[in-house]
């Protein structure tokens, strides 16, 4: 249980959890991850039978990961120390864990939310929207991404390398567990009004944004690729229609000014798609995200040489268009041109030239990202240590032999 000034409720929570374990014959402990309480919460928790560990780094996520590391059990059930969750009804979580689940999430919307337990903003907007975004961005079926009551295998969660220190820790656990292919399940749970007289630590808009930001940053597909691809398609279709002449829709007339805008849309969309590719390759190489087989196949197919060729062809097309525009200018005796027609040649040519350099730079950058660093495995380390030890023995034997040869053969020596 993460704890920061929960003197009013922490003792009740600890006693409920201990009673539940005793009732069902569970060999366990209650760990209070104290984040710097100044109201005596620590001693109250100890008196109730808990083990208190001090977590210096501030934040909900920091307190939880510190408590998880300090826990001694095979399974861990985490929950807030504000008496809003029912610690006497933990067996559904335990049963799922014993059945092989890696992470068991509580679902407050299925189990029941008591009147006044959750603000309307969170109940009808914040939690449903963020949970929907989580299910949309990631292959997850979890209906309540932010339930604070959840159980998991300690070793499975520690292997995820959770890093966020704030409230977004709740999303990070679900997202990384899903991406790593862990067995994630859900059980109904209840939520009651907390027993505190002070306001909660949660800040609706700040923490909601932190959750949304995390979901976006861990999904390059929705952050970069899908918006970029949509902009490229719209920009290309609109540009193709405007290159041949003005387009009129009802009373609206679209001409070269719109063509400049659609060309910019193509360039921006292309950049976004490239950023999605960069992010996927980098995140997979560094272990932040699991490797995407489709991206890996694309990178294997689109080698540096092919990228340079495609970029070169785009550059030739752009230069050819610019040369054609110079001939068009010559035909008009290098005088004033009608921009309504000259820009129809210059804008697509400049766009192709810009995209050619983007393609070349992208091919070079992806090749740099793909340079694999040598990582020593435990076997490599052991083999290296064995070789060093053998070399040390050989050196010692050589030194002893050299010393023996230099020592005079005397009766005393015999």
Automatic annotation (TrEMBL):
Report whether Transmembrane helix shows up as a keyword of the record: yes
Q: Which stretches are tagged as biased composition: Basic and acidic residues? A: 391-403
- What domain of life? Bacteria
**Which molecular function term from Gene Ontology is one that the record holds?**
transferase activity
Is ATP-binding tagged as a keyword? Answer: no
Q: Which PANTHER family match?
A: RFBJ PROTEIN (PTHR48090:SF7), UNDECAPRENYL-PHOSPHATE 4-DEOXY-4-FORMAMIDO-L-ARABINOSE TRANSFERASE-RELATED (PTHR48090)
Q: Kindly provide the name given to this protein in its UniProt entry.
A: Glycosyltransferase family 2 protein
């Amino acid at each position: 249980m993460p704890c920061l000034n929960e003197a009013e409720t922490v003792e009740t929570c600890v006693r409920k959890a201990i009673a539940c374990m005793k009732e069902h014959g569970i060999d366990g402990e209650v760990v209070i991850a104290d984040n710097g309480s100044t109201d005596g919460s620590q001693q109250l928790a100890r008196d109730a039978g808990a083990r208190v560990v001090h977590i210096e780094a501030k934040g909900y996520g920091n307190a939880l990961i510190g408590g998880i590391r300090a826990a001694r059990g095979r399974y861990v059930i985490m929950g807030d120390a504000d008496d809003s969750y029912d610690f006497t009804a933990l067996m559904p979580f335990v049963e799922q864990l014993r059945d092989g689940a890696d992470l068991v999430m509580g679902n407050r919307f299925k189990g029941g939310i008591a009147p006044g337990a959750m603000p309307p903003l969170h109940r009808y907007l914040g939690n449903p929207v963020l949970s929907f975004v989580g299910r949309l961005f990631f292959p997850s079926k979890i209906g309540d991404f932010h339930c604070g009551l959840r159980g998991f295998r300690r070793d499975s969660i520690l292997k995820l390398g959770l890093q966020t220190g704030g409230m977004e820790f709740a999303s990070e656990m679900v997202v990384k567990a899903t991406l790593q292919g862990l067995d994630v399940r859900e059980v109904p749970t209840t939520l009651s009004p907390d027993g505190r007289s002070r306001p909660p630590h949660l800040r609706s808009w700040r923490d909601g944004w932190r959750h949304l930001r995390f979901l976006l940053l861990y999904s390059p597909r929705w952050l970069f690729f899908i918006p970029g691809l949509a902009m490229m398609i719209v920009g290309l279709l609109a540009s193709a229609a405007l290159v041949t002449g003005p387009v009129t829709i009802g009373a609206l007339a679209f001409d070269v000014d719109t063509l400049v805008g659609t060309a910019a849309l193509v360039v921006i969309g292309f950049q976004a798609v490239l950023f999605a590719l960069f992010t996927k390759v980098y995140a997979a190489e560094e272990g932040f995200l699991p490797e995407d087989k489709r991206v890996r196949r694309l990178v294997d197919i689109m080698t540096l040489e092919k990228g340079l060729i495609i970029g070169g062809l785009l550059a030739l097309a752009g230069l050819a268009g610019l040369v054609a525009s110079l001939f068009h200018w010559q035909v008009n005796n290098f005088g004033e041109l009608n921009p309504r027609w000259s820009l129809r040649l210059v804008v697509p040519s400049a766009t192709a030239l810009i995209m050619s350099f983007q393609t070349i730079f992208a091919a070079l950058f992806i090749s740099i990202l793909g340079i694999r660093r040598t990582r020593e495995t435990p076997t490599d380390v052991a083999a290296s240590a064995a070789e060093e030890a053998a070399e040390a023995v050989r050196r010692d034997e050589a030194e002893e032999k050299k010393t023996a040869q230099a020592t005079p053969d005397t009766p005393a020596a015999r």
